Amino acid sequence: MTDATAGKPPRGGQMLAADGTPLKVSLRRAMRAQKLRALLLISPLLLFVLLTFILPIGDMLLRSVENDIVPSTLPKTVVALQDWDPKTSELPGEPVFAGLHDDLVIAVEKKANTRLGQRLNYEYSGFSSLMRGVVRDLKSMDTSRPFMEQFIEADKKWGDPAVWRTLKTFSGEYTSGYLLNALDMQRTENGIQMKPEQERIYLKLFLRTMAMSLGITFICLLLGYPIAFLLASLPLRTSNLILILVLLPFWTSLLVRTAAWKVLLQQQGVINDILVWLGLVADNARLVMINNATGTTIAMTHILLPFMILPLFSVMKGIPPSYMRAAKSLGANDWTAFWRVYFPQSIPGVGAGAILCFILAIGYYITPELVGGTSGVFISNRIAYHISTSLNWGLAAALATLLLVVVLALYWTYDRIVGIDNVKLG
Amino acid sequence: MSLRYILGAAVLVGLPFGAAMAADDIEPCDGCANSMTVVSWGGAYQTSQQNAYSKPYAELTGTTFTWDESSNEAVAKLRAQFEAGNVTWDLVDVEGPDSQRLCDEGLAMPIDFDAVLAPGDDGSTPTADFGDGLINECFIPQIWFSTTFGYRTDVAEWNGAVPTSLCDVFDMEKFPGKRALEKRPKKNLEWALLCDGVTKEELYDVLSTPEGVDRALKKLDTIKDQTVWWSAGAEAPQLLADKEVVFGSTYNGRLFAVIEEQHQPVAMLWDYEVFDFDGWIVPADLPEDRKARVMNFLRFATDTQRLADQAKWISYGPARASSQPLVGKHADLGIEMAPHMPTNPDNMKNYLVNNIEWWADHQDEVEAKFQAWLTQ
Q: Per the CB < 8 Å rule, is A132 touching B104?
């Protein structure tokens, strides 16, 4: 028993440090200096992460709701449209058309008209050519005549109330259009509705991405656990050799590995050739193992396996072998000793490996693009398409935002069920 | 011994490059930047540009070239560079429709063709020489290329039948086997409708009707389960060479490589191939010294001889009329290139040009429908 009163302040007074200041104050001062030093030490990294990662990503995610282009390109039109009731089948009045004329003259000068056309074309097909056409239309317009009939003469689409309804619906600074689109929904006259069956795609891809990523993570665990176990229990010399074999794929280009899978898996590929030669598969019924979900699963499992094995290995390395021996000496058979004693201790490694694999898997796009065909592509492939080909950055941002939300939700669930402090990388 | 052999071979291969350079009419360039960043597609196409344009130009002027292989996402990247206010590219190789987009948005600079470009060897003005290729005021065309089908010539199940028309691609009974098509609606929808009884003239009218796209997809349904969908241009030739597919659509230059360079049992189907232009655009608002260098280079690299030279390394047709008679033999293979050009009259009996305007309007809607159809 230690002396229970040690460290307690003398009755009635505070404990003082050597220089006479109260100990609490002195301690706090020392801690503050330490914290400040720590903050200064990490500040370069903090700034770096903030400037190159958090701010750009925040900016990108903001694009999923940003609609500034409509009110800033057509300011007068948007104001004039406020009095128009989109539910009527009548066209807006002359002031709207006059405002449109003024706005478009400036827009054409700034070459902003086609960008606007592209933006509105996401919601209503035909805006793209309508807005490109205004360059030619404006030249022939006579400012002394009413603009309404002149616009409709130039392009009859201006006489379609649906065009104006779209313009009015998407005239705000912010829009839910992209996010709705990313959920296969659209805004119609009758409120928000699901898109027609044959245009729905994103929800399906989200579900597929989640399901296949979970599947891939599970296969990685099944394949990786025994290898990690072997690595942890073999003598150092042998285990180092196997570890190099595990790491070897890491040092090979991702594209090379993916291309190698093509050579192996395709219908005229090595595996099918061997199966046909062995007589297991008929020549005219070769297995389809690539350009579908199977191809994606196989190639991605191969790529992600090291991310499962390494955390498992480092956790298992820390489990004393004497525990298993103790369990056995107390009468447990091999399986009980493993399942009741060893496995629970390796759970932090399983958690770390699974989270790592899963998070990497849902963001993958180059491997599914190359070996996924149509049934093995992920949501990231659509994001990449909208970023670099269709240039619909708003929709890409909306899809990315949803993906982020799903990941955070899963992370939260994981934390509630398993506990995030129960994850170890070593 | 073997090293000397390799070195000797390198010198021999190097010779034609040197012989191709004719240092005749290069204009002096005052106050020009000493380096250029050029954006292209990589692969054999970029090599042909380097051999025909930039290598001779660098020898004459000492300009250093940096190549960036970003053409397939040039519009996105250029837009991002403009948003960040830091344009690092000097000259960008893009397809026709992309140039239209960049020009419309003011990201590409309008060019005064007759002032900037060299007149044709036959004395014609650049405007007349390039003709239909000048699809907008920013775009300087280099080549015609076409997207067409290649087929394997050794398919036993075909019993000696040889595909002669585009619609044989859709004939599963006579020509069984897998097909490779691009994972995009563009071109595929047009081909499907043409083989569903729609004429070339009515094509976009039919596509504009609400049922048009569905009709095309329905036609594609007949081969859907036998189709491998590609997204990179190199995939279809590879699939053909590996016997994975019996028909594959791709760029004619890629098929040329499979047939003539790799000697695979593959042949080209010239029927309703889709024509398109590829060419240069200059980013808007370049600093004066960089702009001067680009203009000087452009005048050299798009003259009659240089455009004809490019066809020594790749089977794409030069965009100038005056270059056509100068198209000679392949630099390494020594075969005549003219019969392999998409612009060769024999290859142009039936051809198609995408309606850029229609695609600009319907791209978003049709792409969504097409991708949804693919995942069904």
A: yes
Neighbours of B223 (CB within 10 A): 17
C-alpha A426, offset from chain centre = 27
Distance between CA atoms of A14 and A409, rounded to whole angstroms?
A: 48
Which residues of B are less than 8 Å from A122 in CB distance? 364
For A23, B35, B248, B305, B312, the CA distances from B290, given in Å and listed in that order, are 68, 8, 42, 25, 29
Task: Tell me the shortest Cα–Cα distance from B230 to chain A, in angstroms.
Answer: 8
Cα distance between residue A40 and residue B78, in whole Å: 38
Pick the CATH number of B31-144+277-348 from 3.40.50.2000, 3.40.630.30, 3.40.190.10, 3.20.20.240: 3.40.190.10
Chain A positions in Cβ-Cβ contact with residue B77 (cut-off 8 Å) = 388
Q: Which residues contact A45 (CB under 8 A, 6 or more apart)?
A: none
Query: How long a stretch of residues is chain B?
Result: 376
- Cα A371 to Cα B244: distance, rounded to the nearest angstrom: 14
Considering CB atoms only, which of A111, A198, A390 is closest to B363?
Answer: A390
Q: How far is residue B141's CA from residue B302's CA, in Å, rounded to a whole number? A: 8
Question: Six-digit token pair at A223?
Answer: 């394949």
Please name the member of A125, A200, A266 whose beta carbon is closest to the beta carbon of B372. Answer: A200
Measure the CA–CA gap between A271 and A265, rounded to whole angstroms.
6
In this structure, which CATH number among 3.40.190.10, 1.20.1070.10, 3.40.630.30, 6.10.140.1670 belongs to the domain B147-275+349-375?
Answer: 3.40.190.10
CA-based radius of gyration for chain B: 22
Residue B243: which of A205, A268, A374 has the nearest Cβ?
A268
Structure-token match 């897998």, residue found: B178
Angstrom distance (rounded) from CA A276 to CA B72: 40
Rounded distance between C-alpha atoms, residue B339 and residue B335, angstroms: 10
Residue A343 burial by Cβ neighbours in a 10 Å radius (0-12, 13-18, 19+): middle
Q: What is the mean pLDDT of residues B275-298?
A: 95
Which of A198, A200, A371, A392 would best serve as a mutation to test chain B binding (most B beta carbons within 10 A)? A198
So what's the ipTM on this one?
0.84
**Which 8-state DSSP code applies to residue A22?**
B
End-to-end CA distance of chain A: 36
- Residues A121 and A127: beta-carbon distance below 8 Å: yes
Q: What is the pLDDT along chain A (426 residues), one digit of tens a residue?
A: 444 444 455 555 678 878 888 888 888 988 999 999 999 999 999 999 999 999 988 998 999 999 999 999 999 999 999 989 888 888 999 999 999 999 999 999 999 999 999 999 999 989 998 998 898 889 889 888 999 999 999 999 999 999 999 999 999 999 999 999 999 998 887 889 999 888 899 999 999 999 999 999 999 999 999 999 999 999 989 999 999 998 888 888 888 898 899 999 999 999 999 999 999 999 888 999 999 999 999 999 999 999 999 999 999 999 999 999 999 999 999 999 999 999 999 999 999 999 999 999 999 998 999 899 899 999 999 999 999 888 999 999 999 999 999 999 988 988 888 787 777 776
Amino acid at A351: G
Judge whether B129 and B302 are in contact, CB under 8 Å.
no
From A287's Cα to the closest Cα of chain B, the distance in A is 12
Paired tokens of A75: 């300011």
Residues A409, A416: Cα–Cα separation, whole Å = 11
Rounded to 5 degrees, φ, ψ at A85 are -90, 115
What is the domain partition of chain B in residue ranges?
Answer: 31-144+277-348, 147-275+349-375
- Name the CA radius of gyration of chain A, rounded: 32
B266 Ramachandran zone, left/alpha/beta (phi>0; psi -120 to 50): beta
Residue in B70, B77, B104, B221 to test binding to A, most A beta-carbons within 10 Å: B104
